[in-house]
Write a structure and sequence with these properties.
alpha/beta; 3 domains; flat
Length: 268
């Protein structure tokens, strides 16, 4: 293919067009000595290498699911929770059953994704999933059960809410108590299993939306920004205002802020 008669702008438009750059076109760019064309070629090859690496990474995310299916377990669900660490708000879990053959670029542990990327993936996951469900443990349950058991309760509720009953459940971190389905806890599972990663994204986005709604009730705390985590902004608000009804009563910074406010009131 001869591209010497094309301008660099025309080559760039063709390379980035909806049809992409064909093999002959790419080879022609590789032979072109113009600096601008060489730069377009370099970016194309870099993108190609990144796409190959992403395909390989995604394939590794299905190792647990594929192994379980090969041993007769189908369908396989993944479940994860979000919100163990914050000082306010519920802990939210999500369970997801993905199809056997699915390609979800950027699927990963929710903590490694931007809010915008998580929102995009949530829509894609819900659209292609065989089933998905959310489970929640309230602030009161976190206080009475402790955060560890409240997180397990939320995950158990998410699994129970699936419209398709899984034959096996992959769990991030710890074994779920009282779950009458075969399960496998995987430490760091949200970065190792596609199903758990999908659950982590749904759980994180659902919880963020809940905290955004709480911001409407208690705007002075800034829940829409920190989602209840112990940021400097949140700690300052706690020290100034004391806890609100969605703060976790058993968490030390919340307890301390309540005592500070009681002492301030007494000193007046």
């Amino acid at each position: 293919m001869e591209i010497s008669s094309l301008s660099i702008a025309e080559i760039k438009e063709l390379a980035n067009g909806p049809m992409g750059a064909g093999e002959e076109f790419v080879l022609a760019m590789a032979k072109d000595q113009r600096i601008g064309v060489r730069e377009i070629y370099r970016k194309l090859k870099k993108a190609e290498s990144a796409a190959i690496a992403e395909t390989r990474r995604l394939a590794k995310l299905f190792v647990y699911e594929d192994d379980l299916r090969a041993n007769g377990y189908h369908p396989v669900a993944g479940v994860d929770e979000a919100g163990r660490g914050p000082l306010a708000g519920p802990v939210v879990a999500a369970a997801v059953i993905l199809p056997e053959k699915v390609h979800l670029p950027d699927l990963n542990d929710s903590k490694r994704l931007t809010p915008q990327k998580r929102e995009l993936l949530v829509g894609q996951i819900k659209k292609i999933a065989l089933a998905w469900a959310v489970g929640i443990s309230t602030v009161k349950e976190i206080y009475t059960q402790n955060i560890h058991h409240a997180g397990l309760t939320a995950m158990r509720r998410a699994v129970a809410g699936l419209k398709v009953k899984p034959a096996y459940v992959l769990v991030d971190g710890f074994r779920i108590e009282k779950l009458e389905i075969p399960q496998m806890p995987i430490v760091g599972g949200d970065g190792l299993s596609a199903s758990i990663a999908a659950g982590s994204i749904l759980a994180k986005v659902e919880r963020d939306h809940i905290m955004d709604s709480y911001h409407e009730l208690y705007p002075e705390y800034g829940f829409n920004r920190h989602k209840g985590y112990a940021t400097p902004e949140h700690l300052k608000a706690l020290a100034r205002l004391g806890p609100c009804p969605i703060h976790r009563a058993g968490f030390r910074p919340v307890v301390d802020s309540a005592l500070i406010n009681v002492n301030q009131i007494r000193a007046r």
